[in-house]
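User: What would this chain look like folded?
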Amino acid sequence: MPEQPAASSVQEVEFREWMLHPTTKRLLAAARERRQAVMEEWAAGAYTAETADGTIQRNAKGIARCQELSWLVEIEFMDLYEEMESAAKPSATIQGLSGG
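Assistant: Here's the prediction, encoded as structure tokens.
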């Protein structure tokens, strides 16, 4: 009887298939385009305000947008599954606080 693939290898196959799907390719292309647009907006001064504090806030938002778009564009299998696995595991701090 053939050996069943490990759950993580099934997940990896599904991830690769998802990455090759036309809709996923379009999503990633759109994210790359949007990231480039945000960088061009920044270069054109769109994140400059009348006050230093306003400029800082606008720049922080622009940087955050680029970072999140970069995460999506550069996503790899472990980016999804390591985060899911660590979120599913209770932390020692939470266990300690619950009295357990």
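Residues 9-89 form one domain. If you want, I can go into more detail on any region.
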